[in-house]
Design a protein that fits this description.
The complex is a heterotrimer of chains A (455), B (250) and C (191). Chain A has 455 residues and is an alpha/beta fold. Among the domains of chain A are: 230 residues, 3-Layer(aba) Sandwich (Rossmann fold); 66 residues, no CATH class. Chain A is globular, with a radius of gyration of 26 Å. Chain B has 250 residues and is of the alpha/beta class. In chain B, helix 5 links the parallel strand 3 and strand 4. In chain C, the strands form three sheets. A five-stranded parallel β-sheet of chain C has the order 1-10-6-3-2. Chain C has a three-stranded antiparallel β-sheet with strand order 4-5-7, covered by helices on one side. A two-stranded antiparallel ribbon of chain C has the order 8-9. The mean pLDDT of chain C is 95. Chain C contains five helices and ten strands. The N and C termini of chain C lie far apart (58 Å). The chains are: A alpha/beta (455), B alpha/beta (250), C alpha/beta (191). Chains A and B meet through helix 1, helix 2, helix 18, helix 19 and helix 20 of A and helix 1, helix 2, helix 3, helix 4 and helix 7 of B. Chain C: This is L-lactate dehydrogenase complex protein LldG. Chain C: It holds the Pfam family LUD_dom.
Chain lengths: 455, 250, 191
């Protein structure tokens, strides 16, 4: 089922209260980011450095991946290479089978969403427990995340309260966030303590030393991995960075951009396996190496998945993550979706006014808006151009290439003002649904010039 | 500034048809400063509406024509940050992709930009004793640097406010979410109508919360979109392009 | 060709414009009073940081801060505790610890975070205790993460973590709640 952003956004906005809350809350996160950014005089320099470090890393990707694998293996980790999502999932299942594990506790990883890992494991009889509060709520509701950092932002506490009543036997009618979080803490702690295998994503993989760096506020990645014997890391190949010194730049940018806090509560560095345990690192390609050959869209590989672009995007804030058909929404999601399958995800392309706010908040300076503009140019070639827009553009082109015709049109335009309302405002007039049409001036500028200035 | 330099007036298609007073104000103001202005009459459009919708190729002929029309002028000045930004940022690479040079490179200016950076007036005639709320349009801010983008940690500045403050009697305000998009976005306004109007209504409310009588800015397209909403919602706020304020009394 | 080779070949086949690694040198923010900055930011992020006064007994201070803690786990010499966390056979046994008292290597003034390279048998202690006290030499504070990553203590570790304040979440309607999974309260004692 291919979701259409236009109609989905309309539906989202029909819940006026919910839409307003969504918009204001995400704008609030943008403001928190701004406040912290303005407290660091060298903020713009940091962004520039981060962008340069990432451009260097991705254009030397083979070198750094090899260096990373070697360092990690020297540390005692096992490094796997997965060319696509299927291979990634198979590797995870194999590790679980080898260790007779029937359950896995997971912390948040958009990469595992991308690979549809949870469904795959469940089909194969594995119990999957998401441990990030937002992700756990969505798992129980059987809903996908609507934001990559604040996945349950679209849910009201009452819904969550009712869910917990059903699944966790919490107090009836109690939707206090502190109470509910406390109940989930207790519930998930039992899972942490009994899990043999814990999975995490990776915010960064350090080539020089083999560190895996995971940033969380909840501490769920660490609760899981400090108890389980087996730690599996799913890491996109673009997450590798050259050295620990680079982390100084990224750890100053990530949380400030993502949630408007100076740093996450936990910034964990996994180097060697736990004593008596195993550390498995799965390096996943799944189309990333192909992106390297796409000059116009190469910069998407710099992304550190902070979500700042979503928080600032005026369209995302007013349409919500579920209006986008790709699992990652907002400006970065529009671009990643097109890289994944343009024939499928082109329906997200209208969701942008080209305001370029996303470019300015991106901590690694991805040219998000410019890339959306470029994707639009390529739509006609793949047969996905909006026919109405195409006709309109063709018509405009014709008019503008014939100045004489254009001037005649200018002279006649004011007549449109006098057309009866019922003829002007109807279902064919999209502009007129929510606005009045502009009025054509009785005398165009060209006419005025001819009359008053031209010698 | 060398007043003998030839300035070609660039009057965007919709300004020509809907807001000619903006073009007239531009002409009168530049004339007031003793500048050498001409309006090449066979200009039509800069190509932005087609290109932003994904049809750069349909705009190519218009874009080429634009360069030919303005090639002999020292400056090209137009009262539309959005259109000027499009010419500045996009014409060179669209033309280059088809093996053409860009004739307007380095000489195209939005009128506010031109006045602030080149003409540098230290006073303005007439008065405008009204409270205005400045609309910082996206392309003006983030492509033409007419004011400091709120996302960036850079020293704050606003060329439009600097110019407006020269006008006797004026009271200048800015809305909260000072440079959030109004939702026009060219064809976005009709394709994503629901979001466009939601954005427009929010922006309009932020402007009105300043208590301003007028909403002003460098882009008539944004103003046109918000004006459409204000008229539909029967709101009393008025709209005026910044250059009209600067030229008022002439 | 195995997957590793396939991936590497796929990467190498592109004729990429190469970008150099930048020199990471910048005039980063410096705080005239690092201790004060650290204390302020700790508060702001929901944590707590206190300066051990001259002549003050650290065990007394901890007892005053956590009078209700019954099970106190610490392997730090001269610190009062009810159990040695290194005596456990598996990390599950640490569940139920009310207060963990651990050592930090250094702290960062810009964000109130403390670097803790694993000094205990089971790293679970850092996360499973209801509350955490982190002992830190006040002279060890650095201004920013740049210096943090330069520090010598950083060199060899099997596991290390920067902890800044308590565990938290805002996943329910953006309402901030402390103690999602890790410590509900964290106090850094600067000595």
């Amino acid at each position: 089922m291919n979701k259409n952003h236009v109609t989905a956004a309309e539906a989202f906005l029909s819940n006026k209260e919910g839409a307003q809350w969504h918009n204001e809350t995400l704008w609030g996160t943008r403001v928190k980011r701004d406040n912290l950014a303005k407290g660091i005089p060298e903020w713009e320099e940091l962004r520039e450095l981060a962008s340069k470090i990432k451009m260097h890393s991705i254009t030397h990707l083979d070198h750094y991946l090899l260096q990373f694998a070697e360092a990690a293996e020297k540390n005692g980790a096992t490094v796997h290479w997965a060319k696509d999502d299927t291979e990634h999932n198979d590797i995870v299942l194999e590790i679980l089978r080898k260790n007779n594990a029937e359950k896995v506790v997971k912390s948040k990883s958009m990469l595992t969403e991308e690979c549809h890992l949870d469904d795959f494991l469940i089909e194969n009889g594995i119990d999957v427990i998401e441990s990030d509060l937002g992700e756990r709520i969505l798992q129980l509701l059987k809903q996908p995340p609507s934001h990559i950092v604040m996945p349950a932002i679209h849910l009201k506490r009452q819904i969550i309260g009712e869910l917990f009543e059903e699944k966790l036997n919490t107090e009836k009618g109690n939707s206090d966030p502190t109470y509910l979080t406390g109940c989930m803490r207790e519930n998930l702690r039992k899972e942490f303590l009994s899990a043999k295998v814990a999975m995490t994503g990776a915010n960064f993989g350090v080539a020089e030393t083999g560190d895996i760096v995971v940033c969380t506020n909840e501490g769920n990645a660490d609760m899981g991995t400090s108890q389980a014997d087996i730690h599996i890391v799913s890491m996109g190949i673009e997450k590798v960075i050259p050295n620990r010194e680079s982390l100084g730049v990224f750890t100053r940018l990530l949380a400030r951009s993502a949630t408007g806090q100076p740093i996450t509560s936990y910034t964990s560095h996994y180097c060697k396996p736990r004593k008596g345990g195993e550390l498995h690192i799965i390096l996943v390609d799944n189309g990333r190496s192909d992106i390297l050959g796409n000059k116009d869209h190469l910069q998407t590989l710099k992304c550190i998945r902070c979500g700042a672009c979503m928080n600032t995007c005026p369209v995302y804030r007013r349409s919500g993550g579920y209006s986008y058909s790709y699992f990652i929404p907002g400006p970065i999601g529009i671009n990643l979706g097109m890289l994944n399958a343009p024939q499928v995800y082109y329906t997200n392309l209208p969701a942008c006014t080209l305001c370029f706010s996303c470019n300015n908040v991106c901590p690694v300076k991805i040219d998000l808006g410019n890339q959306i503009y470029k994707w639009r140019q390529g739509l006609d070639a793949i047969g996905k151009a909006n026919p109405a827009k195409k006709v309109l553009s063709g018509g405009m082109s014709f008019l503008f290439n014939h100045p004489g015709l254009f001037h005649s049109a200018l002279k006649m335009a004011p007549i449109v003002n006098k057309i009866p309302r019922s003829l002007k405002y109807n279902k064919f007039n999209e502009w007129g649904i929510g606005r009045e049409l502009p009025e054509f001036a009785p005398e165009s500028f060209t006419s005025w010039w001819k009359k008053n200035v031209k010698r | 500034m060398d007043k003998s330099l030839k300035i070609g007036l660039f009057i965007p298609c919709y300004v020509n048809a809907v807001y000619p007073e903006v073009g007239i104000a531009t002409y009168k103001l530049l004339k007031y400063f003793g500048l050498n202005i001409d309006y090449p009459m066979n200009q039509t459009c800069c190509g932005q509406p087609m290109a932003n919708a994904g049809f750069e190729d349909k705009g190519l002929a218009t874009i080429k024509k634009f360069g030919e029309i303005f090639k002999d002028y020292d400056y090209v000045v137009g009262p539309s940050a959005s259109c000027v930004a499009f010419v500045k940022e996009n014409h060179p690479q669209i033309l280059a992709a088809h093996g053409h040079a860009c004739q307007t490179e380095g000489k195209i200016y939005d009128v506010c930009e031109f006045l602030h950076d080149i003409v540098k007036p230290d006073n303005l005639p007439g008065e405008f004793p009204h409270k205005v709320s400045v609309h910082n349009s996206c392309h003006g801010v983030r492509e033409l640097n007419l004011s400091s983008a709120s996302e960036l940690n850079i020293p704050m500045y606003s060329k439009i406010k600097d110019l407006l403050s020269l006008k006797k009697g004026i009271e200048i305000e800015e809305p909260e979410r000072v440079d959030e998009c109004c939702g026009f976005g060219g064809m976005f306004a009709v394709e994503e109508e629901a979001v466009s109007c939601a954005m427009g209504r929010d922006k309009l409310q932020n402007h009105m919360n300043t208590g301003a009588e007028y909403i002003t800015g460098a882009d008539s397209s944004c103003l046109m979109h918000m004006q459409g909403i204000a008229r539909r919602d029967k709101l009393p706020v008025k709209f005026i392009h910044a250059v009209e304020i600067l030229a008022s009394g002439l | 060709m195995n997957s590793k080779e396939q991936i590497l070949n796929n990467i190498r086949q592109h004729n990429l414009e190469q970008y150099d690694m930048p020199v990471i040198e910048l005039d980063a923010i410096q705080f005239p009073d690092k201790i004060n900055q650290f204390i302020e930011v700790s508060k702001a992020v929901g944590g707590n940081a206190v300066l051990l006064k001259e002549g003050e007994d650290i065990n007394q201070l901890i007892a005053e801060l956590y009078p209700d803690a019954k099970t106190i786990a610490s392997n730090v010499p001269d610190i009062n505790s009810t159990m040695d966390p290194d005596s456990v056979n598996n990390p599950r046994e640490l569940n139920g610890v009310n207060l963990g008292i651990v050592e930090g290597a250094f702290g960062v003034a810009e964000n109130g975070t403390v670097w803790i390279p694993q000094h205990v048998k089971e790293r679970a202690l850092y996360f499973i205790a209801d509350s955490l006290v982190i002992l830190l030499d006040k002279e060890s504070l650095v201004d920013t993460m740049h210096e943090a990553y330069k520090r010598q203590q950083f060199n060899d570790y099997g596991f290390g973590v920067f902890i800044s304040g308590p565990s938290k979440t805002a996943d329910i309607e953006q309402a901030l709640v402390k103690g999602a999974h890790g410590a509900k309260e964290v106090t850094v004692i600067l000595k």
